[in-house]
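Deliverable D4.2, example record:
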Amino acid sequence: MHGCIKKIISLLFCCFVFVYGQNLEDDKIFEALSFIDVGNYKSAIEIYNEIYNSTNKLEYLEEVIKLSMMIGDTANALNYIQKYQNIDNKNLQVKYILANIYMMQRNTNKAILTYEEIIKLEDKDDLKKINFKTLGGLYALKKEYKTAQKYLIQSYEIEKDKHTLLLITSTNIYLNDFASSLPFIKDYFKETIDSDFAQIITQLSFTQLSVNAKSLEELKPLFITYYEQYPNSTNASNLYRVYIIDDNLDLALSLANKHDLNLEPIVDKYLFIKDYKNARIVLKQLLDKKDDGFYYGMMAIIDFEEAQDKKSVLDDVISNFKIALKDNNNPTFANYLGYLLIDYDIDINEGIKYVENALKEEPDNPAYLDSLAWGYYKLHRCSEALDVINKIDKETLESEKEIKEHLEHIRKCLK
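Output generated by the structure prediction step:
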């Protein structure tokens, strides 16, 4: 009888201890949540740590990890994660936090290892897609483009999207294998290749020209095919961009006139190759469409650069520059006009004012500093001229012929 009573008392005591312990645990959780409500995360961390140490329940250690991240304490978060993973190495939430820390630390190798563990555990398609894409991006950062491509394609196969397709195409361009992207592009873009997508892959192909021209050669027929089948303005713009890069300027101009595309890139290209005659023709078309000050400035540059007898065109050139600068302080035009006024002794003080306006926009521009120094030299303010020209970096001073000549004149002036 006495033995039975002892057992009942012992059982009741155990129940009391359990209930008391549970209540104590609940009270502590409530206390931690109260601290979180008022933004006192450090105190909440201490409470959750205390609960974990008394219960050994990993859910509380996970809260410690999350809160440590919330206050930016990645060092302690890493320590708690290591502690957690020594017991349970398959908690996805903890692994995602760990991967995030490595990404923040730019530790690409450890981030890759963590994401490779994650993709073995994650079974949700939307998260798998993101994880494959992230892994592809990380391998691309390491310039391991073949591995990057493998993961990017796995992501794309779960759900097709333009950004992942762009990443796949980019890796293929870096691998000099743009052709491998063609089936993906043709499948995704049924009638029209998105303008932003086309612009990025065209620019990327252009930057790779010095390494391999193959991508650009394969890109052109793709855009031609889309344009011929669906001759809309977007497909025309995509092809137009490639024609300009590939120096097919007659075809580019024809396409631009047919679809009323922006002619400025053609003018820029003609200027780049110093074909001032054709640049002027196209610029005249632009001026006929719109009386824009910028075009007057460009016309001034073209007329001056093209002229055999520079002095004979100075009046028109100066007039056009002043029109260009009437409502807009374009630093290139301001410096150009200022330098002409200085160099040809037309009005040195006025020229200096224009150059100073240019320098307000770009105070370290070596061409503008040279113009100002040359203006001071012309006014026999040679000490000031030397101070200004010495602001130009040494490499430019030694490599730019005209600036070097100006420096020599200024030094002689001071002797």
